[in-house]
Amino acid sequence: MTEKYSILSEVIHERKSVRNYDPTYTIAKEEIEAMLVEATQAPSSSNLQPWRFIVIQDQETKMKIKGFGFNQQQLETASAIIAVIGDTEAYHNIDEIYQSNYEAGNMDKESMERLANNAKALYPNAPYDARLNIAAFDAGLISMQLMLIAKAKGYDTVPMGGFDKGQFAEAFNLDNRYVPLVLIALGKAASPAYGSTRLPLEKIATFV
């Protein structure tokens, strides 16, 4: 076992869904920003990065979200609530993203133009439901990455899909292209999380 794997495995096994947070603990905006920047190393479909974030630290705003979040206590007591928003029209960023990769030396000009043109032919013409599914899938990837980063830094998290997404979108005046997908409570645990078991591998995996 390599040292890197040992550290990663420890973080994975230590991360639990915490719902009881220390309401007096604060996390600096700069530290949350650093975690988000690192989390964006997650992969995404055609590298379109269809994720946006709303970081809620204001207590009054957290209480408003709690009202349409089934009164989950962590929405009130966590240091911050990070809303992961899916961009169903991420194709508007194709030129910026591929030009940036070209300028960074990650691809030659021919590859940049080919990949950008392929993406432009595919994504704007895809049905809305397909684009929403892509955004939701990619939101799952970056959410898990963010939670592991938080745990490695000594913080606790819990992801929540149970909230009124329509009310959330209205409260934050989201354009129709943006869909709230996940809320992540971030903070310091006030009490240990419950343990949880997993189904045995032979029940969930088939090798052929």
Textual characterization of the structure:
Residues 12-188 form the Nitroreductase domain. Belongs to the nitroreductase family. Keywords: Oxidoreductase. There is one protein chain. With 208 residues, the chain is α+β, with helices and mostly antiparallel strands. It has a single domain (16-191), classed as NADH Oxidase (3-Layer(aba) Sandwich), CATH 3.40.109. It is built from nine helices and four strands; from the N terminus they run H-H-E-H-H-E-H-H-H-E-H-E-H. The protein has helices at residues 3-14, 29-39, 59-67, 74-77, 94-103, 109-122, 128-152, 165-171, 201-204; strands at 51-56, 80-87, 156-160, 178-187. Strands 1-2-4-3 form a four-stranded antiparallel β-sheet, with helices on both faces. The two termini are 26 Å apart.
Q: List how many beta strands DSSP finds.
A: 4
Spatial arrangement of strands, main beta sheet? 1-2-4-3
Q: Supply the number of structural domains.
A: 1
Q: How far is the N terminus from the C terminus?
A: 26 Å
User: What structural class should be given to the helix and strand makeup?
Assistant: alpha+beta
Which regions contain 5 or more consecutive residues with pLDDT less than 50? Answer: none
